[in-house]
Design goal:
Blueprint (H helix, E strand, L loop, with lengths): L1 E10 L8 E8 L2 E6 L6 E6 L4 E4 L1 E3 L7 H4 L11 E6 L14 H12 L11 H10 L5 E4 L1 E2 H9 L8 H17 L3 E5 L10 H13 L3 E5 L7 H15 L2 E4 L13 H13 L4 E5 L4 E5 L6 H4 L3 H9 L4 H10 L18 E5 L13 H8 L3 H12 L4 E5 L3 H8 L4 E3 L16 H16 L5 H8 L1 H7 L15 E4 L20 E6 L2 E5 L2 E2 L7 E3 L2 E3 L3
Parallel strand pairs: 1-4, 1-5, 6-7, 7-8, 9-10, 10-11, 11-12, 12-13, 13-17
Antiparallel strand pairs: 1-2, 2-3, 5-18, 14-16, 15-16, 18-19, 19-20, 20-21, 22-23
InterPro entries: Amidohydro_3 (IPR013108), D-aminoacylase_insert_dom_sf (IPR023100), Metal-dep_hydrolase_composite (IPR011059), Metal_Hydrolase (IPR032466), Metallo-dep_Hydrolases_sf (IPR050378)
GO molecular function: hydrolase activity, acting on carbon-nitrogen (but not peptide) bonds, in linear amides
Protein name: D-aminoacylase
């Protein structure tokens, strides 16, 4: 007897083959049978006539591994059909840590990831994965090793190349994490201390990742004026080390750079033709999400939070801060995200304090007009009041670039998102809308790709990039991660004004054979697993 039979579905199996009608039998967490008329009995039969039956969607770029520790039943990902998430991106990891680095890493990660006050009760990545294994979470979770933690363990926050001994320590720590089951390694060219690394350091670390068949995901050093140079560095690393490389949340920010994705995607494709295993992902929105302190120049942001706030509170420093934001700092390599859109295009997304909730959704420029002060005063005053961790949204791109990127066959959609902001504030709508938007808007309505191809981008493509052996395809023997959606009605409904609206058309979501979501409700947390490279581990 099967646990479930899904009857009369339109099978979109993740290969981009044309859909076909069939039944799907599920037993013991696996796909047991796919055939036109299953004769086996089942504990539960669901008629899915007219609905698409697809592999569960894989979000290969998230920041949820900590937020699920404090909010395991968050519905933002499963409600859009996601069954597997990979964290540890953009150089951010909560391990390894020791008694010296634990507090600095907590102070760096927690405001960025929306988990203020979380204490890291572990040391190694292996210990952290064991914590995840024992915790509840609504989707499967795996992680990469972020650069920041291992660099801090080896050499603190020093802005210099590592010594030979320090580099060997980083390589050893990375190897330990890969042995523990992480899927690869991530860096961030705009996040300290990862952005202090030069290319030789990254080559050495990526050579270790290549030994394990892991993936190297990078938040480029530049996503605007020097974006093509940053892509070239990533492709060089892939060529010299043989690592599988992924350009994360690819974009060309600022009007002067619109259209550059055509050139960068050509570079990536040429590298593939030369034998480099390179790929790319993106979220389908023209506005990005950062913490508000990302506006600050490095001479402010590079301090501890308390020291930085002291500088911000000193009004005599604000003209210098504004000048650096507007004009950059010659020779520093720092890229001012203010230049992407100015204060009119920067909106407050989420705050912690109830008294500031009315600021959510407003631009910095509008708040300045309301208060009768300068925009730089708004930024500094909010940070002094709230501390670091205020979410902002920035208009950076154009719709034409999104469509250019989505036409590229190796472009995987991702959310680049936390779970729901834990303070109850605003969010980027990508947190609830990314995958249904690609299916409904770009595939069905804009016809940039077939629905079957959109499913492939969300399933077998990220599974192959990550090395997930038994997920991403709707085949017998594979894990029963299954998303059932209505191809005629699936669409995102989350907006900047209402960012937590649930997507339409996501009917059923199974995680390892357990029905986790239906009728826009989470119904069971029991199916999700911790995923380690090459294997999965149940929580019991």
């Amino acid at each position: 007897m099967y646990d479930y039979i899904l009857r009369h579905g339109k099978i979109m199996d993740g290969t981009n083959n044309p859909w076909y009608y069939s039944d799907v039998g599920i037993k013991d967490g696996r796909i047991a049978e796919i055939s036109r008329d299953i004769t086996e009995s089942a504990a539960k039969v669901i008629d899915v006539s007219g609905l698409a039956v697809a592999p569960g969607f894989i979000d290969m770029h998230t920041h949820t591994e900590l937020t699920y520790l404090v909010k395991p039943d968050d519905n933002c990902k499963i409600s859009q059909g996601v069954t597997t998430e990979i964290g540890g991106l953009c150089a951010l990891s909560p391990a390894p840590v020791d008694d010296i680095t634990r507090a600095p890493i907590e102070n760096m990660n927690n405001p960025l990831l929306g988990v203020h006050g979380l204490k890291y009760d572990w040391n190694s990545m292996a210990e952290f994965l064991d914590v995840l294994k024992k915790s509840k979470h609504v989707t499967n979770i795996g992680t990469l090793q972020g650069h920041n933690a291992i660099r801090t363990m080896a050499m603190g926050f020093e802005d210099r190349p590592p010594t030979e001994a320090e580099l060997k320590k980083m390589m050893a720590l990375l190897r330990e994490s890969l042995e523990a089951g992480v899927f690869g390694f991530s860096t961030a060219g705009v996040q300290s201390p990862s952005n202090f690394a030069d290319t030789p350091e990254l080559l050495a670390l990526c050579s270790v990742v290549a030994e394990y068949g892991g993936i190297y995901e990078t938040h480029l050093r530049s996503e605007s004026n020097a974006m093509l140079d940053a892509v070239a560095e990533t492709l060089l690393i892939a060529k010299k080390t043989g690592v599988r490389a992924q350009v994360a949340h690819h974009k060309a920010s600022g009007k002067i750079n619109w259209g550059k994705l055509t050139a960068s995607l050509r570079m990536i494709d040429e590298s593939r033709q030369m034998g480099c295993d390179t790929g790319v992902d993106m979220y389908p929105y023209t506005y990005a999400s950062f913490n508000l302190e990302a506006l600050l120049p490095p001479w402010v942001r590079g301090n501890s939070t308390s020291q930085a706030i002291e500088i911000l509170a000193d009004k005599s420093q604000r003209p210098r801060i504004l000048n650096d934001m507007q004009n950059g700092i010659l020779g520093s390599g720092w890229e001012s995200v203010y230049q992407w859109c100015g204060f009119e295009g920067i909106h407050i997304g989420a705050v912690a304090k109830q008294k500031n909730m009315s600021l959510q959704g407003k631009s910095i420029a509008q708040i300045a007009r309301d208060r009768g002060c300068g925009s730089i005063d708004v930024v500094c005053d909010i940070l002094c009041d709230e501390g670091f961790g205020v979410l902002m949204l920035l208009d950076f791109g154009c719709e034409e670039d999104i469509e250019t990127a989505l036409r590229y066959p190796f472009m995987a959609p991702v959310t680049d998102a936390l779970t729901t902001h834990l303070h109850g504030g605003g969010n980027h709508p990508r947190i609830f809308g990314t995958f249904p938007k690609v299916l409904g808007h770009y595939a069905r309505d804009r016809k940039l790709m077939s629905m079957e191809e959109a499913v492939r981008r969300m399933t077998s493509l990220p599974a192959c990039r990550l090395g997930l052996k038994d997920r991403g395809l709707l085949f017998p023997g594979y894990a029963a991660d299954i998303t059932v959606f209505n191809p005629d009605t699936v669409i995102d409904t989350a907006t900047l004004e209402k960012p937590k609206e649930l997507a339409a058309g996501i009917e059923y979501v199974f995680v390892n054979g357990v029905l986790g979501y239906k009728d826009k409700q989470i119904v069971d947390l029991g199916g999700a697993l911790l995923l380690r490279k090459g294997k999965a581990h149940r929580k019991d």
